[in-house]
């Protein structure tokens, strides 16, 4: 499997119409029996505070490819997203699909982009009140990508009221946010490291998902 080629091919579908997609608020999703839900809310352009904000390129392709290779659920935007202010007033397809999968008990990993100027490859956002599982996931990611610059917490800690991670935690779900620099997701400019990220993180998700689901089955028994 050529992960870098697959990333490039998937990104071509997200980039149609200059990342506006074909339909307002369109989404792309897939459900699986895995433990995790991977989301990319900024895979296409969006409106926020009366301004158009541009897509976090390759986040949608990354989430779709990781979900497919690791057997996990995933959800991305697939067209320009409408502006919104409060989660409890939001009723677009992304929010409805998100609620549906969170209700089924999946652990959320929200994937967004961050600029190269910050000098970090991966930020792991765990919020101001991380639970044991958030801390465990952060440690696993740090260990898996020990040869890259990984920072947990700090200035990109996903505590804003509009973040998907913050919303998921408010519903009682476990959640972290991954902020990926171009080096970790851009399959054209950084083909080796983008492909390596998918390979390593996919293996982490597969192993962790099996372990967590086995633990849940033991508790239920």
Model description:
The chain is an alpha/beta fold. 42% of the residues lie in helices and 18% in strands. The chain has helices at residues 3-14, 16-19, 59-70, 93-103, 132-144, 164-170, 182-185, 191-220, and strands at residues 27-30, 36-40, 46-48, 51-53, 73-77, 107-113, 122-125, 150-152, 175-180. It has a 7-stranded mixed β-sheet with strand order 1-5-2-6-9-7-8, sandwiched between helices. A two-stranded antiparallel ribbon has the order 3-4. α1 (3-14) crosses α3 (59-70). The longest helix has 30 residues, at 191-220. The N and C termini lie far apart (38 Å). The relative contact order is 0.18. The mean pLDDT is 94.
Short description:
42% of the residues lie in helices and 18% in strands. The protein has 221 residues and is α/β, with parallel strands linked by helices. The chain has a seven-stranded mixed sheet, sandwiched between helices.
């Amino acid at each position: 499997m050529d992960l870098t080629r697959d990333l490039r091919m998937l990104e071509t579908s997200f980039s149609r119409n200059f990342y506006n997609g074909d339909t307002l608020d369109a989404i792309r999703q897939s459900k699986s029996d895995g433990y995790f839900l991977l989301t990319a809310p900024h895979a296409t352009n969006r409106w926020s505070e009366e301004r158009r904000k541009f897509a976090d390129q390759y986040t949608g392709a990354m989430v779709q490819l990781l979900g497919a290779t690791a057997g996990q659920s995933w959800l991305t935007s697939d067209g320009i997203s409408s502006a919104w202010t409060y989660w409890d007033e939001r009723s677009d397809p992304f929010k409805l699909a998100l609620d549906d999968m969170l209700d089924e008990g999946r652990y959320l990993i929200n994937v967004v982009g961050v600029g190269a100027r910050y000098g970090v490859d991966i930020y792991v956002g765990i919020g101001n009140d991380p639970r044991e599982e958030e801390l465990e996931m952060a440690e696993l990611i740090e260990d898996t990508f020990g040869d890259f610059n990984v920072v947990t917490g700090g200035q990109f800690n996903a505590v804003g009221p509009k973040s998907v991670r913050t919303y998921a935690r408010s519903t009682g779900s476990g959640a972290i946010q991954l902020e990926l620099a171009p080096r970790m997701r851009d399959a054209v400019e950084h083909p080796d490291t983008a492909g390596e990220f998918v390979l390593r993180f996919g293996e982490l998700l597969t192993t962790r998902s099996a372990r967590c689901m086995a633990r849940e089955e033991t508790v239920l028994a």
